[in-house]
Amino acid sequence: MQNNPIRIGTRESQLAVWQADLVKKLLEDNGHAAELVFIKSEGDIDLVTPLYAMGVQGVFTRALDAALLNNRIDIAVHSMKDVPVQLPQGIVQAAVLERASYKDILVYREQFTEDSITQINHGLLSTDNQQLSSLLIGTSSIRRKAQWLNRYPGTVIENLRGNINTRLKKVAESQWHGAIFAAAGLERINVRPENSIDLDWMLPAPAQGAIMAVARDGDYNILEAFAPINHNDTAIAVKIERDFLSALMGGCSTPISALAEVTPQGILFKGNIISPDGSQKVAVERTFSKAEADNAGTLAGHDVLEQGGREIVTAFKNAK
Asked: Per the database record, which ranges form the Porphobilinogen deaminase C-terminal domain (predicted)?
């Protein structure tokens, strides 16, 4: 047990604080005193530049990682989808919490018909539908943009930055038809609007809906304190998804999606890469045994590369 409170580093957004508070509670439930330390990130300061134009690798994590390495904090709490697949030298994974919803959702303003909303939910809205010719959708995620344009070409995608409440306010005050959010973020802080639907056809970012705590390598007291709150099935699933991302040489600013689900029968995996304009898509769907978990994401990634994904990766990197 720690003699001093465990210092938990967090960004200042409502969602980040909620996540850090959850970690704090779990630690306290296991007999460890803990306190929050607030750190500003680049992603919180620049709310205008699209994420994919910021060199987004680590944009929400660098400041916390620096505080951790400088011993200002003992642990950093991140939305795991924001964490680069290669952790900084000297930093290791301490725990992955049980995953919440991995889904993306559409918060909509326009008075779509009930039938149209059901069709959008399942990705079945006809491309002949008159509403598609003038759709305006907000998102700063190149992955969400690519998947939406692949399904509904011709949509105008507008940049949407800021914390959750800021983005919801922007949507409400805009002339857009709607905007895409991660379900977990809105649901965790109880701000998911009634006028929202799950996008069941949209694959999430690798590790979306999962919370990750990282510590200094060799800080064994901290690592021991976090071992009981690690959720093994979630940790297995998100490792596979991040291995898939790594195999495709991608980061959280690339149009790569992945979902691994651990079941009693094995691991169900779906993944894809889509060109930013939505015109090209290469997807994979495989079932792995639990014994294959260590290599599953890499194998699925190689499948995608061999089926045409390499050309999409190359074109994306050359266009940056």
From this structure: 236-301
